[in-house]
Amino acid sequence: MKSPRFFVTIGILLLLWNLMGVAAFVMQYTADLTVLARTDPTTAQAFAAMPGWVWGAYGVAVGAGTLGAMLLLMKKAVAATLFLVSLIAVIVQFGYTFLGTDLLAIKGATSAAFPALIIIVAIVQLLYARSLVARGVLR
């Protein structure tokens, strides 16, 4: 089947979004926590206390999302599976962040706005890929 009109544009936007996630992961994982603590002690403490499995979930989320976006552009149906893996990892990561820490109590409800956007984009990219698989665009 022929690709939808904005297929490449949407695919590139999803790839760029996920690459920004990879960049955020690398910057946060390698952050100098003593420097960060001077400007944002709460975040520095949260990064220092974050268990390895949460960092792992974060890495899987951005890695699977990025690979999913690349495979979407290559018209591979496995992109939908990778977007599902990414969504599950995002939920695990933010589930810990907001249910396993006191970050919401300290920073307030507005601290959940960007994570909510991340979850919404993860859902949208999954639904988009699944619709393309159903229409025969991704094989």
Gross morphology: elongated
Number of helices: 7
Identify the quaternary structure here: single chain
Overall radius of gyration: 17 Å
Give me the count of strands.
0
Based on secondary structure, the structural category is: mainly alpha
The termini sit apart by 10 Å
Which strand-content bin applies to the residues? under 5%
The biggest sheet amounts to: none
Give the overall pLDDT as a whole number: 96
Low-confidence region ranges: none
Helix content: over 70%
Strand/helix succession: HHHHHHH
Question: Can you walk through the features of this model?
Answer:
- There is one protein chain.
- The chain has 139 residues and is mainly alpha-helical.
- It is 79% helix and 0% strand.
- It has helices at 7-29, 33-39, 41-49, 52-73, 78-99, 103-107, 113-134.
- α2 (33-39) runs antiparallel to α3.
- The termini are close together.
